[in-house]
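As a next step, the fold was encoded as tokens, giving this record:
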Amino acid sequence: MNARIDEYRSERHLRESIAAWMEAHLCGEFACLRFRGGPGDEDAFPALRKAWERELAAGGWTGLGWPVEVGGRGWSVADQVIFHEEYARAGGPGRMGHIGEGLLGPTLIACGNADQRARFLPGILAGTQFWCQGYSEPGAGSDLANVRTRAERQPDGAWRIDGQKVWTSLAHDSEWIFVLARSDPQSRGNKGLSFFLVPLDQPGIDIRPIRQMNGGAEFNEVFFDAARAEAADLVGEPGDGWRIAMTLLGFERGISTLGQQMQFIRELDWVIEAAREAGVANEPSIRARIAQAWAGLRVMRHNAVRMLGAANADGAQDKAALIYKYYWSNWHRDLGQLAMDVLGEQANFVDAADAGHTKRSRLQGVFLFSRADTIYAGTNEIQLNIIAERGLGMPKEPRGQA
């Protein structure tokens, strides 16, 4: 009994400490960042959000789950959950350092060598080095193994990179990109791929923004024309790229999902506020859909904690993790539709000058952006195949010859 009381006191103290720090720091020049920079709004205040990453780092709020021996804080999953909840409650902005801290950093800890960890982890932890992800291509979205970006070893041991990546979040605000490329020209599928760390500020790389229907431009196309990756920036061995890419995706389904869920909670609160303001909060159909959305969030949180508790040090998840992307993407799409139904005729009016500032424009952004949730990172159809084949052991869907 005393142990449980001590645990409660410890949790309360941690929550109070995080809340107090956020109140003392998310103010002044950073006040405009409250509730900004989430999905569909990631191109908001990029320079200031980078400064916020340095502020977080100075406060000791980065690398929470990383091992202490590489500069992290070694926090438990439960404590990390508390941080994400309090961060969101205080209106913490979307993290510019998410891809580096949440995805690449843990991957280098699991799969990189000592030199790579020494060169890259400190900058990620300090909020001074920003990364983007070079996976998807025009012909390799849901079918990631179909990547055609090529990597050719040069006489000096470096690699020449040629090809194209697409839907690359925040490439225009990043210094580095990790790239999955085909290093064996005779290979097919997930064989013969390699995982490279590539600086973006070099000849042979062209970054072009993709303007979205919600007005944002957080995604980019990235073209590689004889770009260079140093020999020391190959993670693992040549041909080991698929294993490393899957390790990274395991971390993508891991602790980083908590920040996403906190954004979802925030958006549901906006929907509830809008329903009250519009006088429809007591309509039976709206009440039922709000209740379903709330219950869905509780299920999502429970499943995330279950996933995290079962994850290995290399990010490997158990079969329960296979449902996560399908579940959250459909939940979020339905929330966007609920937002429009709550707004009623007001949903049809757009004031570009208020984009991202008023509740109406934020909910319009949720609706528009969530249209893509069931498509990117694996369509619903792909996700159902993964659940059936890998999770339930059902016969594989027939596939044509490439």
